[in-house]
Amino acid sequence: MRGLGWIGLVLLLGGLLAGCERAQIHHSRFFTLGTLVDASVYTADRAQAQRAFAVIAEELDELHRTWHAWEAGPLATLNAQLARGESAPLRAEMYAPLQQAQRLYQDSQGLFNPAMGRLIAMWGFHGDEPQGPPPAPEAIVHLLAQQPNMAQLDLTATQVRTDNPAIQLDLGAFIKGYGIDRIIERLQAEGIADAIVNAGGDLRAIGQPGQRPWRIGIRHPSGQGVIAGLEIARDESVFTSGDYERFYEYQGQRYHHLLDPRTGYPADSLRSVTVLHRQGALADAASTALFIAGPAQWPEVARAMGVDAVMLIDKDEVIYLTQAMAQRLHFLREPTKVVIID
C-alpha cells in the first residue's frame, strides 16, 4: 500500500491522560496489506474497547482479503475476468468502493486512476519488496496508448465489465482511506465517540481523549523527524503521499510508486503532499492526485476534488500551504521557505 510502519505521520499522545480519573486510552496494533495499523480508543469501559478492537480486526481482515493487489483473492479474480473481456459478477462489498473510486477519478481530472494496475506492476511495485528493473520505455508507451481508466468500467451493483482489456484495478491509493472510514462508522455504531485509527501514518480521528484534542505530527519527507503538528477537530482525516514511502534503487537511480498516468513514470516535482479532510477515502485519493498534479496544477485539482487544507513540500523543501492548512499547522522546526496559496 504505502510502505511499512510509521511513515507519513507520527501520533503524539503525551499527556493526554491528565485530569482523567476513569477513562483511559486503550491501544491495539494490527498488520495488514504491508501496513502497521495502530488503533486507540478512549473509554472507561475496557470491554467496549475490546469490542472496538474486534471490529477493527474484522474490517482489516476483510480489506486485506478483498483488495490485495497481488495476492490471490476477489480483486485478482475480477482483474482476470476483465482481462478476458468477461462480464464479471461483483461481490456486494466491492460495489461502493469502486463506485466512489470512479467518482474520484473524474474529480481528480484522471490523476487518481486505479485502473492503471498494469503500470504499477510493470514498475515492480506489486510485491512486498519493490524491485526493478524499470519497464522498457516502449512497454510504457504501448500501455498508455490503450488508455486504461476508471471511466471505461461499466459498473452496476451486481457486475462489472469493460471493453478495454488493459484495465487492471489496483486501489492501493484509496482503499486504506475507504477502510478507515468504514472502521470509524462501525466504531460509532458501537457507541465509541473518541478514537483514532492510524494506518501506516495515515489516519482518521473522532472525538478527543479527555479535555484535550488528538494531536498528530507530520513527518518531514527527509525522514528527519516531525516538521509540523496539528490538532484534530473532533472528526478529521490526515493523509500523506510521499516519494519516500515505497521505492527502490536500480543502477543508481531511485524510483518511487507515485506514477503519473499521463506519462507512465514516477511524478518527480514534489516530496510529499498532506491533505486534511473529514473523509479518509477522499483525503487518501486527493493526496495522490495532488502529488501527481505537481506545483502548477495542484490548486486546480484540489478545488475540483473539494479539498481546501493542503500542504505540499517540493524537492527544494519549499512548503506550499493553503490558507485553511496554514491556520491549523504549528511548525516544530523552521521551514526552508513557506508559500501561502489563496
List the helices and strands and how they pair.
Blueprint: E1 9-12, E2 24-32, E3 35-43, H1 46-67, H2 74-83, E4 88-89, H3 92-107, H4 117-122, H5 137-145, E5 154-155, E6 159-161, H6 175-189, E7 195-199, E8 202-206, E9 215-219, E10 226-231, E11 235-242, E12 247-250, E13 253-256, E14 270-277, H7 280-305, E15 309-314, E16 318-322, H8 323-326, E17 330-331, E18 337-341
Parallel strand pairs: 16-18
Antiparallel strand pairs: 1-9, 2-3, 3-7, 4-6, 5-6, 7-8, 8-11, 9-10, 10-17, 11-14, 12-13, 14-15, 15-16
List keywords for this structure.
T-fold; alpha+beta; 18 strands; 342 residues; disordered N terminus; 8 helices; globular; four-stranded antiparallel β-sheet
What does this structure look like?
The protein is of the alpha+beta class and 342 residues long. The protein has a domain of 80 residues: T-fold. Helix content is 32%, strand content 27%. It is built from 8 helices and 18 strands. The strands form 4 sheets. It has a 9-stranded mixed sheet with strand order 2-3-7-8-11-14-15-16-18. The protein has a 4-stranded antiparallel sheet with strand order 1-9-10-17, with no helix packed on it. Strand 2 and strand 3 form a beta hairpin. Helix 1 packs antiparallel against helix 6 and helix 6 crosses helix 7. The longest helix has 26 residues. The radius of gyration is 20 Å and the shape is globular. It starts with 8 loop residues before the first strand and ends with a strand. The N terminus is likely disordered.
